[in-house]
Design a protein that fits this description.
Chain A: Keywords: GTP-binding, Lipoprotein, Nucleotide-binding, Prenylation. The complex is a heterodimer of chains A (about 210) and B (about 290). Chain A has 7 helices and 6 strands; from the N terminus they run βαββαβααβαβαα. Chain A is of the alpha/beta class. The longest helix of chain B has 20 residues. Chain B is about 60% helix and about 0% strand. In chain B, helix 1 packs across helix 3 and helix 1 packs antiparallel against helix 5. At the A-B interface, strand 2 and helix 2 of A face helix 1, helix 4, helix 11 and helix 15 of B.
């Protein structure tokens, strides 16, 4: 039961429909290599537990539908996010242009201290298929002072790196709270394990409950 | 094509192409757990096969190619790359003279979008037409197979006339919109199982997290295809099918109540978003109980 005391951080994925958000997430959370995913309707949810800098972190990731119809539903999640992954498809210029739109939603609906990263997915594309140059992506990211990654969910390139980078900067941003939580966990875990032993003994005594 | 007037035919043509590409993307990945939609149809639509005018397949190819500013030798080059990296070509199609089932579905959805310009194509409609088309196109009666496209189109139009409101953003808050359906489901749950309802409230497990998809897609993403067909049989044969849908959603929640009561937020989210393998008849029986 110790898991309920883990540190949890909440990430959100946004970007146009078909840029590979679900693919990236499945790669990261489940190490799922299947190339076909059904379209996301509304919102999807995954969890990944990681140890970062010696801290055990549970990352909750909310995957959103990219199509406009679902924006009213997905906008409700911005408020909860501590970190947001902005995804575009480097083979699709429109999806890169629309990053502006997603940035606007973020400034309208997400908390002010939300951390962002920009991801150009599908870096397995042939040169002839690429529509958005690396420099363009980098320039945009620099302008907004956010990290930038070119990833391929298909080839498993940079996926972990991107998510972990975001997790790190979210942790840095919320360092004070996290340290507090860690202290809490230390105390709680001790209590928890004691309680566990006593509960066991209690059960041996005809199920009497011993309260601490 | 350079006419900047937004009402020009060309402007409409390009807008349609965007819709078509979206449909194309979604129909290619329709029900990926079965191979059916990738297979060629048994009865080709001869008008399409022998068409002199532009078919949807050609249109998608041209649109993708044009958007790419690629040279004449593009195909040659990619083929070489393809062999080297064995990357699945996103836009591969069956040879001339053959059509895959997903292409028929694409045509149905594109025509639906053209006929309903106010609504257009919304992701998720593919999940509604999928099972309908499958039932006709895999029927043991050859004649039914032959007319699968027309029959599926007709049924899809009729079904959409009943459920279209959940695909329209501006109707979300109307009486027939998705929000009302979600609220009603939660109210029903509250009246049937107060403790479970409280648990969901306490964990802030909003109906938007799971019931939204259940209702919009009529549960078609929650179960394997044979189960969906069984479920839809009961659902569609019911006069008050949308009330029954609410009962079914309620039954699904109640059937996993023990796990929900014990679970934390994450495990409950996972449970409801990836509903466990369950005998559909059990769900239907439970739903009928709830109805009473």
């Amino acid at each position: 039961m110790a898991k309920q005391y883990d540190i949890i951080i909440r990430l959100l994925m946004v970007g146009d429909s078909g840029v590979g958000k679900t693919c990236m997430l499945c790669r990261f959370a489940d190490d799922d290599i299947s190339s076909t995913h059904v379209s996301t309707i509304g919102i999807d949810f995954k969890i990944k537990t990681l140890t970062i800098d010696g801290k055990k972190i549970r990352i909750q990731i909310w995957d959103t539908a990219g199509q406009e119809r679902y924006e009213t539903i997905t906008k409700q999640y911005y408020r909860r996010a501590q970190g947001i992954v902005l995804v575009y498809d480097m083979k699709n210029e429109e999806s890169f242009k629309n990053i502006q739109k997603w940035m606007k939603y973020i400034s309208d609906f997400a908390p002010e201290d939300v951390e962002l990263i920009l991801v150009a997915n599908k870096s397995d594309a042939y040169n002839s298929e690429r529509k958005v140059s690396k420099e363009h992506g980098e320039m945009f990211a620099k302008e907004h002072r956010i990290p930038f990654y070119e990833t391929s969910a298909y080839m498993d390139m940079n996926i972990n790196e991107a998510f972990i980078m975001l997790a790190r900067i979210v942790m840095k941003r919320h360092k004070k709270e996290i340290d507090k939580q860690m202290e809490h966990i230390r105390l709680f875990c001790r209590e928890d394990s004691d309680a566990h032993i006593i509960e066991k003994q209690g059960k041996d005594n005809n199920g009497c409950c011993v309260l601490m | 094509p350079l006419n900047p007037n937004p009402d020009s035919n060309w402007s409409q043509y390009f807008k349609d192409n965007d819709v078509l590409l979206q449909i194309d993307k979604d129909t290619r990945r329709l029900l990926p757990e079965i191979a059916f939609f990738q297979r060629p149809t048994n009865y080709q639509c001869m008008e399409i096969i022998n068409a002199e005018s532009e078919t949807l397949r050609k249109r998608v190819e041209y649109t993708v190619l044009n958007a790419g500013d690629v040279g004449k030798n593009w195909l040659g080059i990619t083929n070489v790359h393809q062999k080297k990296r064995s990357l699945p070509d996103e836009y591969a199609t069956l040879p001339e003279g053959q059509e895959a089932h997903w292409e028929v579905v694409e045509r149905i959805l594109f025509i639906y979008a053209k006929l309903n310009p106010g609504q257009g194509y919304v992701q998720g409609m593919n999940e509604i037409i999928g099972p309908i088309y499958y039932v006709f196109a895999s029927d043991s009666d050859k004649e039914i197979q032959e007319h699968a496209e027309a029959d599926a189109f007709f049924c899809f139009m009729n079904l959409m006339s009943e459920i279209r409101d959940s695909f329209i953003k501006s109707l979300d808050d109307s009486a027939s919109g998705i929000n009302a359906t979600m609220t009603n489901t939660m109210l029903k749950l509250k009246s049937k199982d107060m403790r479970l309802w409280l648990k969901l409230q306490e964990q802030d497990l909003k109906p938007q997290f799971f019931i939204f998809r259940w209702v919009t897609l009529l549960l078609s993403q929650e179960f394997p295809l044979p189960d969906i067909i069984r479920l839809w049989d009961s659902l569609f044969s019911d006069e008050k099918r949308f009330e029954f849908l609410i009962d079914i959603c309620c039954a699904m929640i109640i059937l996993v109540r023990d796990k929900l009561i014990d679970g934390d937020f994450s495990s409950n989210m996972k449970l409801l978003q990836n509903y466990p393998d369950t005998d559909v008849n059990l769900i239907l029986t439970k739903a009928s109980d709830i109805r009473r």
